[in-house]
């Protein structure tokens, strides 16, 4: 199922106001709170790993980052009727890093690293129709991505003769957003939201076969969510 292809038409249709709903409306000083179930779908890319044992990049050793599901919550403060600031907080998600290049896939097939991720973000939003029952919005901001609990899988450990000291560097990046709120009564609204996050990291570990290994990975996920919200 390609969530990106399903969510974007939904946002466009909703913003046109095809469906009627009770008027909720937002105003300066309101605080919007939303909770969502989200899919984090990396558009990942990496270079070949660098090995201290050979002093060069090892051909055919690229990696891929798998998608994950989790929950998020955001708090949006409306500075004006049209402009808000969103603080986005996710529950941590676990992502698997898998071998992609032919050489690495032969040595250590499948998932090779597991890590947990927290990507809080601060986003400046513009709300197009604050008085309507269907309120599309767009935003741009910045995220900080924190990686923790990194560990090698049995596949990587066996394939490279023992692996230790696995780490992924945390990073800052930008985030772009498009979403829509749809009132279901005078207190609760539905929400659909899609974000693109600029996330990159350097992965490194020590191994028996390749020595100290490093590689740069662009993760750059689409984050697609559906949920409910209210205002205070």
UniProtKB/TrEMBL annotation:
Q: Note the InterPro entries from the entry.
A: OMP/PagP_B-barrel (IPR011250), OMPW (IPR005618)
Q: Name one GO cellular component term.
A: outer membrane
Q: Does the keyword Signal apply?
A: yes
Give a GO biological-process term: transmembrane transport
Keywords, in A-Z order: Signal
Question: What residue range is the signal peptide?
Answer: 1-25
The protein's name is: Outer membrane beta-barrel protein
Q: Which organism is it from?
A: Beggiatoa leptomitoformis
């Amino acid at each position: 199922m390609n969530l990106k292809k399903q969510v974007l038409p939904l946002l466009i249709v909703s913003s046109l106001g095809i469906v009627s709903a009770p008027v909720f409306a937002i105003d300066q000083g309101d605080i919007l709170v939303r909770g969502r179930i989200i899919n984090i779908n990396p558009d990942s890319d990496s270079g070949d790993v660098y090995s201290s044992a050979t002093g060069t990049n090892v051909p055919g050793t690229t990696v891929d980052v798998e998608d994950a599901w989790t929950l998020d919550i955001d708090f949006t403060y409306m500075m004006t009727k049209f402009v808000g600031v969103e603080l986005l907080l996710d529950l941590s998600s676990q992502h698997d890093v898998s071998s992609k290049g032919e050489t690495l896939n032969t040595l250590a097939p499948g998932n090779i690293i597991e890590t947990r991720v927290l990507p809080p973000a601060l986003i400046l939003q513009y709300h197009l129709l604050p008085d309507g029952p269907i309120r599309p919005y767009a935003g741009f901001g910045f995220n900080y991505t924190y990686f923790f609990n990194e560990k090698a899988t049995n596949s990587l450990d066996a394939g490279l003769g023992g692996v230790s000291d696995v780490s992924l560097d945390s990073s800052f990046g930008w985030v772009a957003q498009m979403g829509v709120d749809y009132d279901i009564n005078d207190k609760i609204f539905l929400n659909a939201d899609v974000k693109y996050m600029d996330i990159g990291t350097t992965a490194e570990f020590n191994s028996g076969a390749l020595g100290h290994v490093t590689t740069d990975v662009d993760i750059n996920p689409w984050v697609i969510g559906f949920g409910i919200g209210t205002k205070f």
